[in-house]
Amino acid sequence: NTAASQGGCLGESDGSAGATATRVDNLSSWIGQNVAEPAATFREYHGGTTGIGGFDLADPRDQAVPFDYDHTGKLDHLVMYRPGTGRIWIVKHNANGTFSAVFSSATGIAGYDLKSDADRIVAFDYDHSGKHDHLLLYRPGAKRVLILKHGSGTTFTGVYSSTTAGIGGFDVGDPRDQILAFDYGHTGKLD
Hints:
Blueprint: H1 28-34, E1 63-67, E2 77-82, E3 87-93, E4 99-105, E5 120-124, E6 134-139, E7 144-150, E8 156-162
């Protein structure tokens, strides 16, 4: 209905009770003939109620970030973490459809304790290689930023660290601050 009057509506005594209406039910066959149905279908690849790769996903704070742990150019690992607890797992997708942990810790990673509920992790291409094989950890409101590079085995080394200034002039001093990786230079790299 369009241009409906107010007469009799919610106790209104002024105005007429008329309205202008347009039928659209007879358009359904035309819409069906001229508009394609979405072709995308989704299916479950992994499901369960016990978590993934040993990480239980039992807390509403739990976060997951895709990550290129082994520097292949593929986001075939997941960083699973629970802000405020220090728990962090990195799990890989196996050929048989299962997931297994390649890294796990209850005390954070490379000196970053993940003890604040505000802690966040972003995977990105720090060295412009086309691979999301670095992790940026940050704590909004605390001006704390750490960028880690995965080395051999389960080692991670810091390539950037700030506990008072944030990063690139952005102080990360407000609890609402967020950092995202994106392709500023139109190079196809989230660097």
